[in-house]
Amino acid sequence: MAVAMVSEDRANQPNFLLSQYFKVLKVTIDATATDSRNTGQTYILSPGLALGIITAQSTYTGYDPNGSDGTETAMGVLLNEVDLKNGDPTATAVDTE
Fold first, then answer.
1. Are 13 and 91 in contact (CB under 8 A)?
2. pLDDT tens-digit profile of 38-75?
3. By the 8 A CB rule, do 80 and 87 touch?
4. Strand runs (DSSP E) across 13-89, as ranges?
């Protein structure tokens, strides 16, 4: 499972404590990802959102237990807010496997 971290000012500086225990990765959040918990602005992904990966595109989106494209497997948890207005943002992720 990966834990994704995104921060405007720290996108290239992984959290020191997390990097001591987990492998830090860069992941791309799919531009079509939505967060149904964020009423009114579903293009803003909130911290704590479970992530799955769209296998064919190798991009991350919200976990979907009923999916059949790879998103049915939880692959991480978003740590920071992500705004998808400008396409596919790159996020820092921590691989916990």
1. no
2. 877 788 888 878 888 999 999 999 899 999 999 999 88
3. no
4. 23-28, 44-45, 50-54, 59-62, 76-78, 82-83
Confidence of residue 9 (pLDDT cuts 50, 70, 90): very low
**Which amino acid would we find at residue 95?**
D
Query: pLDDT tens digit string along 12-32?
Result: 444 555 666 666 667 889 988
Residue 20 φ/ψ, nearest 5 degrees:
-75, -25
Residue 95 burial (CB count, 10 A): 14
Picking from 67, 77, 8, the residue whose alpha carbon sits closest to that of residue 45 is: 77
Residues 6+ apart with CB under 8 A from 70: 52, 53, 54, 55, 56
pTM equals: 0.71
